[in-house]
Design brief:
single chain; 208 residues; mainly alpha
């Protein structure tokens, strides 16, 4: 734990010696040290850091945790649009390609926090909802899309008010007043008629 923390902390420094240690740690025998070295490189925007991270993209044998750390660091440290775009695209791909896995959840949550309004992130969340591929992400997707006033969700909100997952239903109910106020009474009627929404009915009435 000491080595991991030290490598990560060195990433905050801007001098050549510290940066050289972090870059060298990308090939450390311990996977946890390599992961923290990747995260450390993401602490500052710098062309040399970006180059080192881009070089890691083709490295075989990386686990999903390391890939997520790499993509996130690339977004944060890249001065060039190419580096940022590659990081976002890879995280979005991982967020929708791993189904209901922990890796998909972690990747999706991370890219939302880094690039919340990027079109690819918005499309990722729409895909998660449309395909029902990640139940644990549904309520988060609804809340985030509602927060950015997504027109696709506004048109389709009704189906999530009666969704299988209670958290998804609650998120949809709490979003209807500011996302699609003109349709909130129609959605409320749908909620009242649904057997699934009984436990969320009080919340629905409060949102009128």
């Amino acid at each position: 734990a000491m080595r991991e923390g030290a490598v990560n902390a060195l990433g905050f420094f801007d001098d050549e010696e510290a940066l050289s240690v972090v870059i060298k740690s990308l090939t450390d025998p311990a996977p946890s040290v390599r992961t923290h070295a990747i995260e450390g490189l993401g602490h500052r925007m710098d062309a040399r850091r970006e180059k080192a991270l881009m070089g890691m993209l083709q490295k075989p044998g990386m686990n999903d945790q390391q890939k997520i750390a790499l993509y996130a660091a690339l977004i944060k440290t890249s001065a060039s649009p190419a580096g940022k775009n590659r990081g976002i695209s890879e995280m979005v791909r991982l967020g929708v390609s791993k189904g209901n896995s922990e890796s998909a959840l972690q990747s999706a949550l991370t890219v939302i926090s880094i690039a919340p309004r990027d079109e690819r992130v918005i499309k990722m969340l729409q895909t998660i909802l449309h395909t029902a591929s990640n139940k644990r992400m549904e309520s988060i997707a609804v809340r985030h899309l509602a927060a950015v006033r997504d027109s696709w969700l506004a048109k389709n909100l009704g189906q999530y008010i009666t969704a299988e997952e209670s958290g998804t239903r609650m998120a949809a109910i709490q979003s209807m007043r500011f996302l699609c106020p003109a349709d909130r009474f129609k959605h409320l009627e749908t909620a009242i008629r649904s057997e699934r929404v009984k436990n969320n009915l009080m919340a629905a009435l409060q949102e009128v």
